[in-house]
User: Fold this.
Amino acid sequence: MGTKKTESVIGTMLLGTVAGDIHDLGKNLFAILARCKGIHVIDLGVDVPPATFLAKAQEHKPAMIGISCVLTTGWPKLEETVSLLRNKLPPPVPSIIIGGTSIDEHVCRYVKSDFCVSDASEGLAICHRVMNKSEDKRPKKR
Assistant:
């Protein structure tokens, strides 16, 4: 009769808004879309201190870490967070992707993140590529 459909999880992503920033609309939209595409999202919320990103990354060992930042005043904390993750996590350090309305390639280089995005669809494509998965490679549903 009824069959239960199960989506396979392609990887885990830690997601949060940088300390000092409480904007979450874009982050929340991305999280919803990522979950729909098979990514297990651990959402840390907003105003997340660098130490919390580190502790949760150590606990969950995600494939990727996504940090949202809307305010230009958040760039120093963004740089601090990325630096802490790179210096304190054991290899291999998860790929770090940043996004938000204030983010561009210059900010990406300043904070030394692996990727920067300006929209959710671009972020999803990068996540799928990094996690070495695509919808075509998923196990077929029965």
Summary: Strands lie at 11-17, 39-43, 64-68, 95-99, 115-117. Residues 133-142 have pLDDT under 50 and may be disordered.
